[in-house]
Write a structure and sequence with these properties.
Blueprint: H1 5-12, H2 16-23, H3 31-44, H4 50-57, E1 62-67, H5 75-88, E2 92-97, H6 102-114, E3 119-123, H7 132-136, E4 142-145, E5 155-159, H8 161-174, E6 180-183, H9 189-205, E7 215-216, H10 223-236, E8 241-244, H11 247-259, E9 269-271, E10 288-290, H12 293-308, E11 316-318, E12 321-323, H13 334-345
Parallel strand pairs: 1-2, 1-3, 3-4, 4-5, 5-11, 6-7, 6-8, 8-9
Antiparallel strand pairs: 10-12
């Protein structure tokens, strides 16, 4: 049977109230008595009841975390970063998925509240101003990572999507590309808009006018399917390069190029966004924009813990970094591209 406070009190020859106070470091109990009881508790293998402690402190030492899906390779390091900070502070994380559905996301948030978590972190949130009145009624801190809806509410940590997209487009421009497509994601309205804006700004600064025909977001069930579906339009519009909303979209485009015998980067340069692990193992390896995912998780959890301590916090925006690999190269003429393509097949 588990050792209880009453068991310790019996052995120590004191009341269970004295034991409880000593274990909690109450100054009303002398230092010597506190030391003796705490040592006795360790020797007897006493384990404090988390339920009892939560009733006393009004804290459960748990944080609810809403993620899009456990299959998303982007989310792994975000959760690891959050978990590292949480564990060091004595907190545990509960995970649940939203599947990019705002109603499901709201349902998970409400479930976490009923389970008395101390705070909630939401990744790629789809909960916008439509739900602000419901969120106001949730009496625990909520922190968003890469929020996907417009509106000034809650607290957030995000990457600088505009700066990252500008880096990607400038890289392609530096390589001599002028017909650069943007393969977007209409189901991520905020970040997609920011990345589109960064793409358009880079083109403008290079003296180019954005061609709406090169901005595409094919309807698709997954990012991979969206990337695959984009190739037909990119080829029809004579694109020599493509900036994709994320790495999964870029990988889908790479797969479709391989299936149709289109050489990358000789005939089409491709760049993604996120820098997920699979980007290292594609053929060719994927040039991409690195998001500091681990740090996103760390900062979100740090912000959450500060809110729990009643401290003031500010929204955080992190810069991105260009990672150059093999899927982008200098723009070639048609003749050079054909020769390079033949060489790659020999």
């Amino acid at each position: 049977m588990p050792v209880t406070i009453k068991d310790i009190a019996k052995v120590a020859g004191v009341s269970h109230t004295t034991v409880s106070r000593a274990l909690n470091g109450n100054p009303a109990i002398s230092f010597e008595t506190t030391e003796r009881i705490q040592q006795l508790a360790r020797q007897m293998g006493y384990v404090p009841s988390a339920v009892a402690q939560s009733l006393l402190s009004r804290r459960t030492q748990t944080i609810g975390m809403v993620i899009t899906t456990i299959a998303d390779p982007f989310i792994v390091h975000v959760v690891e970063g959050a978990e590292q900070v949480a564990q060091e502070a004595g907190y545990s994380i509960f995970l649940n998925t939203s599947h990019n559905n705002p109603d499901q996301e709201m349902a998970v948030v409400e479930t976490f509240q009923r389970r008395r978590v101390d705070a909630i972190i939401v990744t790629s949130s789809r909960v916008g101003s439509l739900y602000s009145s419901q969120l106001d009624q949730i009496k625990v801190p909520i922190v968003l990572i890469n929020n996907q809806e417009e509106g000034e509410f809650l607290y957030s940590v995000a990457v600088d999507n505009f700066q990252g997209a500008q880096l990607a487009t400038e890289h392609l421009l530096t390589l001599g590309h002028r017909r650069i497509g943007y393969v977007g994601a209409a189901d991520r309205p905020k970040s997609n808009g920011q990345r589109l804006e960064g793409y358009a700004t880079a083109l403008s600064q290079a003296g180019l006018t954005l061609d709406p025909a090169l901005v595409i977001s094919p309807p698709a069930g997954t990012d991979l399917e969206r990337g695959r579906a984009s190739l037909e339009t990119l080829r029809a519009e004579h694109a020599t390069a493509a900036f994709c909303y994320n790495d999964l979209t870029a990988i889908g485009l790479l797969l479709e190029c391989h299936q149709q015998g289109i050489s990358v980067p000789q005939e089409l340069s491709i760049i993604g966004f996120d820098d997920i692990e699979p980007a290292l193992y594609t053929t060719p390896t994927l040039t991409t924009i690195h998001q500091p995912r681990f740090k996103l998780g760390q900062l979100a959890m740090t912000m959450t813990l500060k809110l729990l301590d009643g401290q003031a916090v500010q929204d955080q925006r992190l810069p991105c970094k260009l990672i150059v690999r093999e899927s982008t190269s200098q723009r070639m003429t048609n003749g050079e591209s054909q020769i390079a393509n033949l060489k790659s097949k020999i």
